[in-house]
Amino acid sequence: MIKQLYSLIQFDEAVKTMEAGADNIGLVPMQNGGVPAHRVPLERVYKIHDEAKKRGVKLVAIMLTNDPEEMLQLAEKVQPEILHVAGDGYAATPEFAKRLKEVAPDTALMQAVLVDNETAIDRAKKFAPFVDYILLDSGLAPDTGIGASGKTHDWNIDAKIVESVDVPVIEAGGLGPDNVADAIKKIKPYGVDSLTKTSIKYEGGNMEKDIEKVRLFCERADEAAKEIGL
Ligand SMILES: O=C(O)c1ccccc1NCC(=O)[C@H](O)[C@H](O)COP(=O)(O)O
């Protein structure tokens, strides 16, 4: 079971998050979009990425800009293992996927799908032929895109999506140590993602990972996956 932890800001917390069991670490490279306090300067992104590569951990670069050209420029500079498109005004297309392969041949494409109702099933099916991963998430805010809501959604829809697409699905939205096992047993995803419930949030949008909660999240995810043979 892949455990994906967002949103890393500092180098030391990224290291501790990897030590606590993360397989994928997500961050927001400096761009025109998202919560200003979550954006990471490129020099630090490179340092975190070098450390992640040494540990066999994948770096996920989250795109909250709505400008595909800016996304492609960032992908070319960072060469992340995964590019996660989550803005509220732009979703990946087959043409974008093709151009991403040209500028970052080893970067996989992950598209966020907002699970607000049953229409999410058809939206996920449309992305599946040309993306490498689908991330199912909750909450859409005009300034920050899809996600980071700390809220769950209807897991019955997610379970149907997992059954109907051929690409790996990462489950996100309000997951933490308290409910990750239930989500895995119900949805049977390829991976699980957590931001809010494994972070400490401060005034002004600042936050840091709560390492004990990250550890518990990873342990409980692995236990649940093992229990059901995933
Ligand atoms: O990581 C961010 O800073 C971020 C900001 C705005 C939208 C999405 C963002 N991250 C995407 C993620 O994959 C989150 O981990 C996912 O939305 C789950 O968030 P949460 O419900 O808070 O666990």
Written as H for each helix and E for each strand, in order along the chain, the element string is EHEEHEHEHEHEEEHEHEEEH
Terminal CA distance reads 7 Å
Number of helices: 8
Largest sheet: 8 strands, parallel, barrel
Bound molecule types:
ligand LARABZUK
Inertia-based shape: globular
Radius of gyration: 16 Å
> Into how many domains do the coordinates divide?
1
> At the third CATH level, what is the topology name?
TIM Barrel
Q: Strand order, main sheet: write it out.
A: 1-2-4-5-6-7-10-11
Low-confidence stretches: none
At CATH's second level, what is the architecture?
Answer: Alpha-Beta Barrel
CATH superfamily: Aldolase class I
Structural account:
- The chain is an alpha/beta fold.
- It has a single domain, classed as TIM Barrel, CATH 3.20.20.70.
- 38% of the residues lie in helices and 22% in strands.
- It has eight helices and 13 strands.
- The protein has an eight-stranded parallel beta barrel, surrounded by eight helices.
- A hairpin with a 5-residue loop joins strand 12 (199-201) and strand 13 (207-209).
- It is globular.
- The mean pLDDT is 96.
- The site of the ligand O=C(O)c1ccccc1NCC(=O)[C@H](O)[C@H](O)COP(=O)(O)O has 27 residues, from strand 2 and strand 11.
